[in-house]
Amino acid sequence: MKCVLIIAIICIYHLRLTVAQFDKTSKQILNISFAASTDELASEKLPNVPNNYDKPIYLTDLFESLNRSSIYILELQHIRNVNVFKNATFEDFSTLTQLSIRKGKIKSFPETLFRGLNHLTRLIISQNELKSLTIDIFADLPELQYLDLSNNQLTHLPDEIFENLFELRFLILTCNKLSSLSRDTFIGLNGLEGLYLDQNNITSLSEGVFPSVAPGMILDLSFNNISSLHERTFSDMDNMAILRLSKTFSSTITNLPHNLFLNLTSLETIEMNDNYFKYLPDDIFHSVLELKRLNLAYNKLTLLNDAIFKKNIKLEELNLEGNQLQHLSKNVFSSLTSLTKLNLASNHLSALDPQIFSQLNALEEISTANNRVNMSGPREENSNLYNCPHVKSIYASNNTIPKIYQDWYVQNEVLIQLDLRYNPIPQTQFNINLKSEKGSILLTSNDLLLFNITHSQPTEVNGQTDFIYILDKNAACDADCACVVYPKYDENKMEIRCQRFDESELEEKLPDHLVKYFSSRYIELILTNCNLTTIHPLQRIFNQINVTKLSLSSNKLTSLDGLPELSKLEILEVHDNQLTNLDAKVLEVLKRSVNLTNITLHNNPWNCDCSLMNFKEFVTSHQNQIWNPNSISCHNQNDIPLLKLPDHKICHLFPLRFVIICTIVAIFGVVAAMTVYLYHEYKNEIKVWMFSHKFSKWLVTEKEIDRDKKYDAFISYSHQDEWFVFTQLIPNLENDDENQYKLCVHYRDWLVGVHIPTQIYRSVAESRRTIIILSPNFLTSYWARKEFQEAYVRAMADRCPRVIIIMLEDIGDRDKLDDELKAYISTNTYLAWGDPLFWKRLRFVLPHKHGASKPSNTDTLLP
């Protein structure tokens, strides 16, 4: 790719102009960006640009030296001076197909600005300060297909402004200040495939305000304040496929006209979550025969009539989470034979009819979490899901379920996830297994009798050894449950975690007849706090299983003599022991372990003398494998890091010189210790101050592992706290002059139709940080807690501080929190809303970008 860079200073603005030619198409892209500084002076000047900068210079003056007929894409950014435009500015760009004018201070345009752009198909005028548009502004764009006017300050659209845009397919008016629409606003737009009016202040919709549209059309009216709605508002949109009405209506709208969706025979998705509906007409969805996805979550519905879904036999996903439903009749779902996903979580349900799900033969996922139901079926041993053979996920935590029903582990062969946390299940049997190879049962926070795995042998189902396992690793446990097994089916691994017993009890806790069941899997063996002084008792285990992780931390090991060559070993953890040296044979074993990628050796009393030189050589040459090698310190050398200690101080030949040097070091050590103490005591305040004043950016550089992540942060919050996210967090971070953080939020960045657990996983995985907006509302939100758990797991896996907690409100008694959240808060600091240094502290813990205040020459791309 050939690229020519030309820079010129115009008045007080810095103009960056880039012409890029692509060899394959011979098309050119012209990118022009203005900034409010003159940090970089021009090395070359545009021809024909006068040297007298006292007079206004128009873009047309700059364009005179260009071959305008060969430019197909033109991008203009950061224009602060509206005087650069005049009528027909782009008239000579006869081949232009895409024009972008973004991130500026433009409040208006000349009426014939776009004259001559007969082949323009894509026009983006976003992130400016447009307050109004003239009626003929788009009259000369006969081939325009995509028009983006988002993130401006438009309060009104002239009638018939889009009348001549016969080819327009997508119109984006997101994030403006529109309050009303007339019947003539969208005249002529009969081929629209997407109309986005979300995040405005629309208060009313009249009859026929929207035109007839193209098949598959999307209409987004989310986040408005509609208080008046005509029943024939959508009457002409018979081809519409997706209708988004999330948080669209004011609190005065508690019901909808029964004919609102009449004639919408192609509608497949309706999103009406986060409104104030208390009741819906019995026949409101009867004409929407193609409906596949319906979201009614977080309204105030107390009742659903038997006939409300009678005609929706194609419905696949139904979300009723967060309403006030107290009772559901036996037949309310009887017509939904295609339903695959049903969410009834967080209602006021105290009972469900034993036959209520009997017709849902296609059901794959159901959530009844946070109710008071027992999910019993017509027979005592079965649940009310007995006739749903395809269910893969059951989320039923925080209910009154008394036991694990037989149909979940006997009849059902595909069940993968069974979440029964926070139920009064008093006991179960060890040999209850899900038939699915990847099945797991979550039983945290039940009154379970915990089983000692040494007293029972695992049961094989379909050739697969399975376990019911306790995910709460902090659960109270007596001596008989010192070992717990955690299957990791996705990695074909088993984690055996044993702790709190003596070395002499190891054979009893992990007998041979049990170990042999694990021989076909890769094993992560965790033996912490077992008072081990040597690894010789582990030899019989090493001979029978393939160990990929060996954690022997927090024991009393004085040596690793006898460590065998474990060909599959990837992780070795021996920190927090009594190791003073490693034998040469042990070092040779470690060197030959080709799969070993992570070793922990810190917090041991290493004796740094001549006998330790081989160990130091090993640490020096394997720093990429050793976790924080600088934390390995010499116990006999005042805990100086081993790698910072010169060889002659470890193995010295002149004791007198050594004494003299030590004396000098001791003198300076006092000063250094005081300095280190003061820095350690106030290091956060020091770093925050230095970061906020743009000093020492090296303290907060971004890690290589995060450079390819799509977002800087994923914001996890309860919908009841969205006022804080929308009015404080997003404006202050996304419009940050220095970093301009890219945030991931549910309503804007989640993909329609994708399962929520998948959305959560993707959002956390693609973000450098996860910001938790902690409040009492967050603690009552099931999905918000799931988001924290996913972020917590990823942070633990990456060993990086990825979770940022903002304490929005006091959460009361912390002993009632989820164990993971309680543990995290107790061991990590959080940010408090209202702290005078809140924004500085927040920006400090967010990812930092070098050179954020100096824009690069290639930072402007088509959206």
TrEMBL record:
Residues forming the TIR domain are 709-846
Q: What is the topology of this protein in the membrane according to its UniProt annotation?
A: Single-pass type I membrane protein
Which positions make up the signal peptide? 1-20
Q: Which InterPro entries match?
A: Cys-rich_flank_reg_C, Leu-rich_rpt, Leu-rich_rpt_typical-subtyp, LRR_dom_sf, TIR_dom, Toll-like_receptor, Toll_tir_struct_dom_sf
Q: Gene Ontology cellular component?
A: plasma membrane
**Which protein family is named in the record?**
Belongs to the Toll-like receptor family.
Can you say what this protein is called?
Answer: TIR domain-containing protein
Which species? Parthenolecanium corni
